[in-house]
Amino acid sequence: MAIPSDILDDICFRFLVNLPEDQKRDPIRVCFQAELAHWFYVDFYCRDLVKYPNCREVGMKEFIRVIFNHCDFLQPLAKKVEQIIEDWRAYKTSVPTFGAILLDSSLEHVLLVQGYYASKNNWGFPKGKVNEDEDPVKCAIREVLEETSYDISAGIKHQRFVQRIVGENPVQLYIIPDVPADFPFKPSTRYEIRKIQWFRLAELPSSRQDRQFESIGHSPNNFFTVFPFVDDIRMWAAKKNQHRAQQHQQTSAFRRVTPRSHKISPAVRNLFDSPQFHSPTPSLVVVGEPLWTAPAYPELPSTSSTPAPSQRQNQQTPKAKTKSQASSASASGPDVKTVNLAENIRLAKAWTNVKLDYSKGLIPISVKK
């Protein structure tokens, strides 16, 4: 067996056995709890090969299959586990995602993150699933803070966002300009973000047909969750820079107006001096190395004395709980609220009818399906 039986007993006791009876009868709810259990298993068993040499990492689907076959009250559903997993994944897809587009002061560089388990060098914006009854702005603030440690609450504006349907998932990203280039970005939870890095906005692919970066190990597919937003970000940045230039002319009638591209902050200017940036080979990266890369974490404590990492705000549904919450799960298991799926789908579809006044510097956000 990929996972030792005694380890499965411990995991089922922590996350499943003590669930309320109504949640035990809901396979979708059980899958969310199994997702928490999977993160816990990876964090506190698979990372400690000295104490648990027989615990190897398994994917989420395989882990859920094992759980349904091991846990007594789930065994009657084991034959239907494949369909249950598909239903659960479809349910998760319907839940809106909120996050932010972080731009430096020149509006020429955008911050992207790479998930800890991302495959094929994929990059995306810091974002995550909304909690039940959570305000979209608060969700975006929470997710960006968790993934980068940067607090966008002071710079976020409720009507300054871009919406797209990425795959089948509705995504709304708030535009945050003037982010300090030298901020010490770092995720606040383990094993969620592997890298954090600035990229040049002008060089990001805006479609799957952009092939100019394949020579340096990047392809449009590495940015498949990014390029649906690229054209609108460029449009907004150009509009914003034009507005800044007009303001500068009004307040500096007797001074020469310096082009915006020459007014890069000292912090970013220093980053441009890196050899990689000036090499003949074009590069997407602003700096030679990522601003943050996941370290080799020290030995983790045994489950019997697991410290409780800092809790994320609120008890979530669909992304539902976070890895930090999974790490500190009690025997009774976290409380899970019911999500109104129909309302989420209605909200996502309603986005297609939303329009903003571009004359005021906002991005048109009609959704491209």
From TrEMBL:
The keyword Hydrolase applies. Residues 301-318 have a biased composition (Polar residues). Residues 323-332 have a biased composition (Low complexity). CDD domains: NUDIX_Dcp2p_Nudt20. One of its GO terms (cellular component) is P-body. PANTHER family: M7GPPPN-MRNA HYDROLASE. It is found in: Cytoplasm. Residues 93-224 form the Nudix hydrolase domain. It comes from Plectus sambesii. Its main location: cytoplasm. One of its GO terms (biological process) is deadenylation-dependent decapping of nuclear-transcribed mRNA. This is mRNA-decapping enzyme 2.
